[in-house]
TrEMBL record:
The keyword Hydrolase does not apply. This is LacI family DNA-binding transcriptional regulator. It comes from the Bacteria. InterPro entries: HTH_LacI (IPR000843), LacI/GalR-like_sensor (IPR046335), Lambda_DNA-bd_dom_sf (IPR010982), Peripla_BP_I (IPR028082). Keywords: DNA-binding, Transcription, Transcription regulation. Residues 7-50 form the HTH lacI-type domain. GO terms for molecular function: DNA binding. Coiled coil: none annotated. SUPFAM superfamilies: lambda repressor-like DNA-binding domains, Periplasmic binding protein-like I.
Length: 347
């Protein structure tokens, strides 16, 4: 039998009549070549049978992306746009790395009854990405299938699954430290810590920042549980009404809660930020168009998607590793927060 010559980067370079360095940059997913050239190089790698793109190895190039249907069909348009941007950025990163993204929906009944989508069995794929917030029982069921997979934008303690999230503790810490630096001493918190590890971590960042700033936490100023994945208008209204002493600033675990809070405060004839400063997390599209604009922590969507592909590749080599990759967010200062002239008696 004649052994087929192993294809090299130089072979790809000669085939396309470009430099070997350009091929190395594209295959390493580094900056330095145009997107058009990058895609030409990936295609040539597949055609020539380079490395993991060698069709003779009969290795599937698909990555299965499992997406809860409630994310795709979000009634909240801004949350829909956020997840829409996240999922299509992920799809683009998958393609840029020479794979095919196959998106499979998980509806509510499937999640409740622990049913895998048919695509899980009908196609060959090298690994899966569990996208967004999925129940712990469903995540455990996916883990039991023995296929390499990671979680994107959430994780569950007790389940040995690598994950990529925003750096929630650090981001919340920066947010609350910023509020304290603006002179606020009575700082509240809104976020359903009972439902997601993201909000739980943001609560931890809030708690740590308050401690480090020497500020006391009033439990009445903290809304940490919700019946749904986001605090609703009724819950936020009850939270505000129950407080005898009101906060001068409130950090919300996501922009949706911050926007609901602002709407509620306006109904009570309160001014933002003159009477209450409000801060969010995510940087939804609406955050920039609000009046006043919402100060928030911008989630690095592109960075998270890049990390997801890199982590999945690592997982293929070391499936038993428990890795949590946290991507730092960015503080975005707008008009919903203003300096507060506090005094020591208000702490």
């Amino acid at each position: 039998m004649i052994r087929r010559k192993k294809v090299s980067m130089q072979d790809i370079a000669d085939y396309l009549q470009i430099s070997k360095n350009a091929v190395s940059i594209a295959l390493g997913n580094k900056k330095g070549v145009s997107q058009e050239m990058r895609e030409r190089i990936w295609l040539a790698a597949k055609e020539l049978g380079y490395g993991k793109y060698n069709e003779q190895d009969k290795k599937p190039l698909n990555i299965l992306v499992l997406v809860p249907e409630r994310i795709i069909n979000y009634e909240d348009n801004d949350h829909f746009l956020f997840y829409h941007n996240l999922i299509w950025t992920l799809e683009k990163e998958i393609r840029n790395n020479g794979y095919n993204a196959v998106i499979a929906r998980i509806d509510g009944q499937m999640e409740e009854e622990l049913q895998l989508p048919n695509l899980f069995h009908d196609i060959d794929f090298i690994g899966a990405i569990l996208f967004g917030i999925v129940s712990s029982s469903y995540t455990a069921m996916v883990a039991e299938q023995g296929k390499p997979f990671i979680m994107l934008d959430s994780y569950h303690r007790g389940i040995n699954a690598p994950s990529v999230t925003s750096a929630n503790i650090e981001g919340a810490y920066e947010a609350v430290t910023y509020l304290a630096g603006c002179g606020h001493r009575r700082i509240g918190f809104i976020g359903p810590t009972n439902l997601t590890t993201s909000h739980e971590e943001r609560w931890m960042g809030y708690w740590t920042a308050m401690r480090d700033a020497g500020l006391s936490i009033d439990p009445a100023m903290c809304l940490t549980e919700s019946k749904g994945f986001n605090a609703n208008e009724e819950e936020i209204g009850s939270y505000w009404e129950r407080m005898q002493t009101k906060p001068t600033a409130i950090f919300c675990g996501n922009d949706r809660a911050a926007i609901l809070l602002i709407q509620l405060l306006r109904k009570a004839n309160l001014r933002i930020p003159e009477d209450v400063s409000v801060m969010g997390y995510d940087d939804l599209q609406m955050a920039d168009t609000l009046n006043p604009g919402l100060t928030t922590m911008r989630v690095d969507v592109h960075g998270m998607c890049q990390a997801a592909i890199k982590l999945l590749n690592k997982t293929l080599d070391c499936q038993d590793a428990l890795i949590r990759w946290s991507v730092p967010p960015e503080l975005v200062i707008r008009e919903s927060v203003k300096a507060y002239a506090s005094d020591s008696s208000t702490g």
